């Protein structure tokens, strides 16, 4: 299987870490976002949304969206289970994962799109008010995570799941490229970060 990705992009990194947890080896093909290669006719034929990552199966079929790709990989290799056991655990993982995607990842994305790096590319006209609001919402969410992680070792409970992968990739991207590093006093959040960063899957695919 081929994964179309770009070094440093958080969503492809999600898939790579997830696949590594499963012991699945993916062939990687770089799509240069700076050159807008994700919008080429060839890539749009694989994923009409013009985004990466895209997983191309051996028979030529393609799957876009990182979580959809991860769900397919979970089907191929069910263990270790990363979406939660059927029933309450799966619902709990989905709940926390959705919170992270909708309340953290989306706001980091808004801060990124309206920040100086994207502005320097001349792709859009940045909106400073949107960047500032997203910035504040991300910092508030970090404080919320810190409180939660004082009561449990992982994002969705007692074990490592897709929620941890998404949170890690988002936080690392935010800290490195969006000027949104969690405050040093958020000790529970940083202890979690250190714990998950030691996993071989994460070491294999650093930010």
The strand line-up of the biggest sheet is 2-1-3-4
Task: Tell me the fraction of residues in β-strands, as a range.
Answer: 5-15%
Number of strands: 4
Q: What order do the helices and strands follow?
A: EHEHEEHHHHHHH
| Net shape | globular
Q: Show unreliable segments.
A: none
Could you name the CATH topology of the largest domain? Glutathione S-transferase Yfyf (Class Pi), Chain A, domain 2
Calculate Rg over CA atoms: 17 Å
Oligomer: single chain
CATH architecture descriptor name of the largest domain: Up-down Bundle
- Quick one: biggest sheet? 4 strands, mixed
Description:
- By secondary structure, the chain is an alpha+beta fold.
- The protein has two domains: about 1-75, Glutaredoxin, CATH 3.40.30; about 90-200, Glutathione S-transferase Yfyf (Class Pi), Chain A, domain 2 (Up-down Bundle), CATH 1.20.1050.
- It contains nine helices and four strands, in the order βαβαββααααααα.
- A four-stranded mixed beta sheet has the order 2-1-3-4, with helices on one face.
- A hairpin with a 5-residue loop joins strand 3 (about 55) and strand 4.
- Helix 1 runs antiparallel to helix 7, helix 4 (about 90-115) packs antiparallel against helix 6 (about 130-150) and helix 4 (about 90-115) packs parallel to helix 7 (about 160-175).
- The longest helix has 26 residues, at about 90-115.
- It is globular.
- The model has no long low-confidence stretch (mean pLDDT about 95).
């Amino acid at each position: 299987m081929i994964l179309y990705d770009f070094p440093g992009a958080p969503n492809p990194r999600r898939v790579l870490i997830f696949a590594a947890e499963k012991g699945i080896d993916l062939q990687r093909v770089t799509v240069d976002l700076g050159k807008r290669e994700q919008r080429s006719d060839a890539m749009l034929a694989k994923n009409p949304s013009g985004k990466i990552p895209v997983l191309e199966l051996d028979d030529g079929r393609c799957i876009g969206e990182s979580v959809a790709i991860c769900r397919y990989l979970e089907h191929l290799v069910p263990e270790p289970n990363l979406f939660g056991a059927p029933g309450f655990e799966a619902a709990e993982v989905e709940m926390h994962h959705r919170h992270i995607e909708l309340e953290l990842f989306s706001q980091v994305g808004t801060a990124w799109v309206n920040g100086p790096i994207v502005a320097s590319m001349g792709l859009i006209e940045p909106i400073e008010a949107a960047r500032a609001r997203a910035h504040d919402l991300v910092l508030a969410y970090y404080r919320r995570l810190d409180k939660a992680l004082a009561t449990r070792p992982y994002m969705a409970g007692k074990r490592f799941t897709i929620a941890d992968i998404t949170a890690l990739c988002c936080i690392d991207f935010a800290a490195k490229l969006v000027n949104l590093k969690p405050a040093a006093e958020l000790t529970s959040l940083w202890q979690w970060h250190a714990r998950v960063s030691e996993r071989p899957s994460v070491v294999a695919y650093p930010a």
